[in-house]
Amino acid sequence: MLHVEFTTPLGARVTVDIADSRQLDATLRQYGRLGWTSGDVPTGGYQFPYDNFPDFDWSLIGARKWKSPEGEDVIFHRGHSYKIRVLEAVDSRKMKLPPAIKISRGAKNTDPAHVREKGEGEIEYVTLAIFRGGKRRENLAVPAQEHAEAAD
């Protein structure tokens, strides 16, 4: 039996038992839709394949896509709003990187030092996720049935 610990948006810790490991993704989706999260965001953010971005299921990490009052698509996670930034490929003598999509926000003085990343100038960022390279993983996509219902 698996035990998954979630944290609710109000900070309550709830343990959910899963009898069959094949139900893990469904359980993460079920509680993630409520904004419940499990675990901490890794330093540098979650790493996902680039091709998963268009239909990534944000409920897997307790997040949701949201349209800001300015009409911009953002990702809402644990009370923070993250911008979607498109990064061009880098091809220089020192570095080669494929294009990426980075989900990040400006750092706050309450953010621990280990999650802050230096940006240009004195700006610091906190990254929730980055989509770069890799091979598409179907288990990270919104399930086909839900995707069809959302299109209706």
Chain-wise SSE layout:
Layout: E1 2-7, E2 13-18, H1 24-32, E3 46-48, E4 64-67, E5 73-77, E6 80-87, E7 90-91, E8 96-97, E9 100-106, E10 116-118, E11 124-132, H2 144-151
What does this protein structure show overall?
The strands form 3 sheets. Strands 3, 4, 5, 6, 9, 10 and 11 form a 7-stranded mixed sheet that branches. The protein has a two-stranded antiparallel ribbon with strand order 1-2. It is globular. The longest helix is centred in the first third of the chain and has 9 residues. The mean pLDDT is 91. The protein is mainly beta and 152 residues long. The chain folds into 2 domains: 39 residues, no CATH class; 111 residues, no CATH class. It contains 2 helices and 11 strands; from the N terminus they run ββαβββββββββα. The N and C termini lie far apart (37 Å).
What structural class do you assign from the helix and strand content? mainly beta
Helix count, per DSSP?
2
What's the helical proportion of residues? 10-25%
Number of domains: 2
Beta-strand level of the residues, as a percent range?
Answer: 35-45%
**Parts with pLDDT < 50 across at least 5 consecutive residues:** none
Structure summary, number of beta strands:
11
* SSE order, one letter for each helix or strand: EEHEEEEEEEEEH
Q: Separation of termini? A: 37 Å
Q: How is the biggest beta sheet arranged? A: 7 strands, mixed
Q: What's the gyration radius in Å?
A: 17 Å
What is the mean predicted local confidence, pLDDT? Answer: 91
Shape: globular
